[in-house]
Design brief:
This protein is mainly α. The chain has one domain. The protein contains 4 helices and no strands. Helix 2 packs across helix 4. 7% of the residues are buried. It holds the Pfam family SWIRM-assoc_2. This is Putative chromatin remodeling factor subunit.
């Protein structure tokens, strides 16, 4: 499995989220979403690659807005374990 270690800049490890093992787990999430949230995902069903990209973008956004190099950081930051 791809390395899960954090990057020095605090951003997401894109290689981890694009690894086949991670995509398999995102496929389980995709199936659950299509089964339990039909009315929300019926018009544009998610893909496992799309979900991986969404998580990567969310972590990157969080790092840009809430990270140590942010211009005006608020006090709250979600832990990365929330997304794993």
């Amino acid at each position: 499995m791809a390395a899960i270690g954090p990057k020095k800049d605090g951003g997401p490890n894109a290689e981890f989220f694009q690894a086949p093992e991670s995509l398999t787990q995102f496929d389980q999430i995709r199936v659950w979403l299509q089964k339990n949230c039909k009315k929300h995902v019926q018009t544009d069903p998610p893909t496992k690659e799309g979900l991986a990209l969404l998580v990567t973008q969310l972590i990157q956004y969080q790092e840009n807005k809430l990270g140590k190099n942010a211009a005006d950081p608020p006090f709250l930051r979600l832990p990365v374990s929330t997304f794993l």
